[in-house]
Fold:
Amino acid sequence: DPTAEENQPGVRLTHRFADRIAFDEFVPPRELSERKEALEERERVLESKFTMVNEIPNAYIAATDATVPREVRHQAIAGYMVHSSSRMVTKAKFAAGRVTAPDAELYALRAAIIRMIQFDDCNMIMIFTDHIAAAKRAMDPSVHSGQGHSLAMCAELSKWFSGDPEHSIEFVQVPSKLGWDIYLAAHDYVRDTPAVLGRHLETSLDSVRQAVAKSCGDSWISEFQHTSYRGKHFLQMRDMRDWPLKPCVLKGGTWLSVTATESLATKARMSQCILGHAPLGEYRARFNIDGEIQCRCGTFIETRAHLFGRCSFTQHSKTDSPRCLGELMDFLWANPRTFAFEAPSEGIG
Structure:
């Protein structure tokens, strides 16, 4: 809802009570050698915060988590455990519908926050979560997937903050790999829930978007199996399990992802080779393009398979075609001019 009252400029929770909302985010070091020490230090910080807040009267601590099942007919589960004065005071978990992990995490945060501010003596809230992005989204009333959860939290916290100038909330990120016992207890509590079925499940914007994207991807993979779709000159290769490569849009795609650190020229040569649109004799003959069709080595027609396995002017293995992307990249590195168009003559282009 773009017109929600909580989303109006000047009325937003983070505008009115910026000094009462805090985020303690953990950013792991880039160097792998430094990560173990950073995690150990983070655990000390978490223990210190947990101990400190437990000693504060009328302060409440929650550990929240959510799990999303692989089966689409099962519902996501969101839950929390609330502690105060060194004891667990309440816990709960809920079926969250057919939603994404961030949506389910948002539901868990909403349930925990609203439950804690229902305690009459609650003056301070600290929430431990492994999804700090969901925590930031919880305080964001703008249009996004799960906005209803955010609006509910913003509305309730606004009343709570207005009731006492000492009221505050802090979100603390817990690295999932850490296995910190306080958070792990909530994690296990949520994960140990039996699969929950349901008809006409609640869903979310991101969940619908994810389902549509998956449907499109599945359709693309299905069509790609047919030569009439991908083209009979497309260079088919296999993955490490010896299965034919499938198209994908994630992380740069199936083919271009391996050239992330390569030059544009190398990317272009790889694409031209795979698509069969490289400046070779067979390409010129197919499209009636002027130019030499014979290979430099004397073979009647210069083909991609010939360059891969038989040409005396290329460094190659003994196969007519690379079986995987790694073999193709090795060939391109060993033959830096192969499959490249010639630069235009001076004064042209």
User: Anything to note?
Assistant: The beta strands are 21-24, 59-67, 76-84, 87-97, 124-129, 168-173. The longest strand covers residues 87-97.
